[in-house]
Amino acid sequence: MPSLRPSHDAAQQLNPLLPGYSFNLYLVAGLTPIVQGGALDFFIDRPGGMKGWIINLTVQGRGKVVDGDRAFECEPGDLLLFPPGVAHDYGRAPHSPEWFHRWVYFRPRGFWANWLTWPGQGDGAGAEAGAGTGTGVGRLRLADPAVRKEIEDLFVQIDATHRGGRRTSEELAINLLERLLIRCHEEAPGYESRSLDARVQSACQFIANNLAHELSLEEIARHVCLSPSRLAHLFREQMGVSIVRWREDQRIILAKHMLLSTGTPISSIGARVGYDDQLYFSRVFRKRVGVSPSEFRRSSEESHDPWGEAAAEAPDTRSPLAQAG
């Protein structure tokens, strides 16, 4: 089967339904229906992986995945997680007449780190739990039909919500994605529910209530009655990211919400989320979101359709993930 080759037509980069789409978004979702001999019947070949994460659910037929020096097949109810930079080498299993899989491409929020550790990632640990992988592809198998339906429904809801045309469609879809990742985390072998330390909860609330201020680690630690070093260690252990990264996540989340739902000047939004220097705010926002605050607001005002009018005028039935190259 031919491998996909990326398009370099810059004019098509902003249309996820056309070749060459850069996937420079927080979230994109869809369904890839592969049938033997059909237009999508080829192996994806991305040796360098992608910048974001992909979670994939087989809903019909079987797929084949090559992970390092190992290969395995996925069947209905199998979930796969491809971290950034992990090679993509997969397609329809040769003996299967089809492979239908739902997927979500996303850029995670900082506090999702604990939910993104799956069996099979790393050095092959988790193979006894059915991971069957070796270098980085996570794998979970959903044996319970009720759980499988619940997870598939979440994939469908994420896709439908993101395409819903509301100003907050992306945020609502990300909300659903959080739920999906938590449910997957709960279904992982050896999962044990663990409540968040009350002092970490208090630190998060204190930071969230003071996003406009540059609180020092010492101030936050004093507020929760811990030493700075102990708080830093405990916070990273439980949240998966540093306090600085978590605070930046919250600032960007709030800034996006204000840009979408209010007419507040960008400079005021920057100050509201802790960046008095508008240029610095724009630089941080672009680094995290992929576009400047003004471009983000303008794109949301120009169209409620996340794919844009061009997609409707020039549809392409191929999966955008299959075209990204």
From TrEMBL:
Pfam families: AraC_binding, HTH_18. Residues 295-307 have a biased composition (Basic and acidic residues). This is Transcriptional regulator, AraC family. SMART domains: HTH_ARAC. It comes from Leptothrix cholodnii (strain ATCC 51168 / LMG 8142 / SP-6) (Leptothrix discophora (strain SP-6)). InterPro entries: AraC-bd, AraC_XylS_family_regulators, Homeodomain-like_sf, HTH-like, HTH_AraC, HTH_AraC-typ_CS, Tscrpt_reg_AraC-type_HTH. The keyword Ribosomal protein does not apply. It comes from the Bacteria. Residues 201-299 form the HTH araC/xylS-type domain. Residues 292-325 are annotated as: Disordered. PROSITE patterns: HTH_ARAC_FAMILY_1, HTH_ARAC_FAMILY_2. One of its GO terms (molecular function) is sequence-specific DNA binding. Keywords: Activator, DNA-binding, Transcription, Transcription regulation.
